[in-house]
Prior knowledge:
Blueprint: E1 7-8, E2 13-16, H1 22-29, H2 32-35, H3 46-58, E3 63-68, E4 78-86, E5 91-99, H4 110-124, E6 132-138, H5 142-149, E7 154-161, E8 164-172
Amino acid sequence: xxxxxxxxxxxxxxxxxxxxxxxxxxxxxxxxxxxxxxxxxxxxxxxxxxxxxxxxxxxxxxxxxxxxxxxxxxxxxxxxxxxxxxxxxxxxxxxxxxxxxxxxxxxxxxxxxxxxxxxxxxxxxxxxxxxxxxxxxxxxxxxxxxxxxxxxxxxxxxxxxxxxxxxxxxxxxxxxxxx
Length: 179
């Protein structure tokens, strides 16, 4: 979905994903060390990535962000998204979290990525639209689980998919809307 939400943290900048980001995103996502954490872990072609971006841009309620370093705001170093809105509990899923682990400047930025996405939801989304965020993480992705826990997410359950255990996490959001 095209949007203009952004976040400037101490070490990270979140800006709307642009078409020029989709190739660096694809290349980073296709690295074997990154693919293993995605539920859809197949390698992605340029054509498939382009088709995905066109579908994404036309969707409502799917907010994708490119991560950059504040000193290099156009340089793509990762991504994160809020998507998969569930009306029954006014929640969005947080996912598609990806960082360039080969870039030393990205060490430890996962926590700030999640903090930034939470800030965006709390400051741009009305409470009537979103009251909580969810995350689904493979149980052996301990770094990601800790990253979300450090940002207020708590485990509320689990499920099995394709013989892999997935940890279900959630956190309430405090929107800047008066009650």
